[in-house]
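Running log. JK asked me to keep both predictions on one page so they can be read side by side. First protein, sequence followed by its tokens:
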Amino acid sequence: MSVLFVLTMACYIASSLGYQGYVLFQKRPVYRVASILLWAGFLCHTGVIALQCFEAGHVPVQNLHEALSTFGWAVVGVFLILQIKFHLMVLGALVAPLATVSVVIASILPGPPVELDPLFKGLWRTFHVGTLIVGIAAFAVAFLVGILYLIQERAIKDKKRGFFFRRLPSLKLLDSMGYSCLVAGFPMLTFGLITGVIYAQMVHGRFWSWDPKEIFAGITWLVFAALLHERLAVGWQGRRAAIMTIVGFVILVFTFFLRFLG
């Protein structure tokens, strides 16, 4: 395990604790420290991935060890980009722990050498898995936002201005951020599935084989396509959109692990 990777985990863990402290005590200096630590972890993590690309000659998405690490990096990246527009500070209390869990599990898993296919197929597979992971990261943030939405909605319905009500933003802001994640993640998911179908044709000589991984990938795409359609055409918002996002992400996670463990 490299020094950079250890620094990445240390920054993510410290950032997670900092964000929890901010949620508890609502002190801006605590938030700033947590945010700086998350940025530091993200930059260290970017260095780790860059070194892996240089040493191995491919983007580190070829096995579960690499994919989980890259997923943690992508989740933090998506969150930091969205923070520029939404400033949803409390979300870091969920994003940082998710990234931490991802890199810690990745550090435990073995990282066996990957024998890539010929150059074109290897690059195509990298695009396929890489875009899927970025899309999953965007949906992961949407999933976390959906959880916060349901918590805040419950607090409002119960008319209890308690712990969560005082710390969570408006339902409108949460819904808007969830929609932005969906818009960002769906094209990546679509591109990932298209490249996967083409890769299957190159390797196996057929576009579709009714493999369980392919079936669940198709189901996942249909769920998010239906959600995006309903939001655009029918105007779905709020609770229904949040629940559908959560359901879709659960299926997506199952498909993700099926992809590497199946």
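And the second, directly underneath as requested:
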Amino acid sequence: MIVRGVPAPQEYTPPLYWEDRAQRFAGERDGLAAVCAYGMPEFYNRAIDWEQRLALEPWLRVEQGARVLDVGCGVGRWSRYLAARGAQVLGVDLSPTMIEQARRRALEQGVAEHCRFAVADLAHLDLGEKFDIVLGVTVLQHILDPVLFRAALLAMVAHLAPGGRMILLEAAPTATVSRCNSTVFTARSRGTYLQMIESCGLEVRALTGVDPAPFRKQLVPYLRKLPRGAGLSLLFLATALSVPIHAVFGRRAVKDSWHAVFVLEQKHRGSKQWP
């Protein structure tokens, strides 16, 4: 069991980084160590997966046949979740191994006829299709270059059908926090996201929280300095203390949440009505 996760590389080349990450962990169990916290213990990543599902569930109630684009789909956990509820999903990811695992898992789950998967770079995405829902879960936080960050968001907008909805779950604290940043991740402030969202022709329909408990985010940056046993014990304690807080207050404690769910629509949206 890995306690400290896998260290970030000195140089970040996204296709190489995500393919290496996928080859290490995408085939293990549910592949969470590849798509949540890289190489962290199973209990930690299962907690992250659960709290993300809790935060996203109200916005992922789809109509039969709804067209969904899942960007940065990883092993396809959200693609399969939506396909099982009747959506027709296209999942895209930088890593061929992630896509291979997503296809395999969709077949095993019995939803392959409702899923398509393709290797693609979000910042340069041009699929020639429109979608009722465009979903991105912890994707933009790994696009460090401001120009590519904007290009990725605009690419998502370009694939949104009239009256469609975009759903983002990203690390977006209310204030800039740099202690968790690395060569592969940046926690942009919530204000930065809101400014970029507006500049890309979107408006916020809803903004909800995910993980307001402070224990994990305060501990994780210092894990590498702790002995393995102490680090594992403290990480388990921080996770255990966080779970009930996120269950009760996660979506409502928006201001204190480290991650946020942005539910977005185009400013001049079509006639489709959402709940």
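Observation for JK regarding the second prediction: Strands lie at 67-71, 88-93, 115-119, 131-137, 160-171, 202-209, 259-266.
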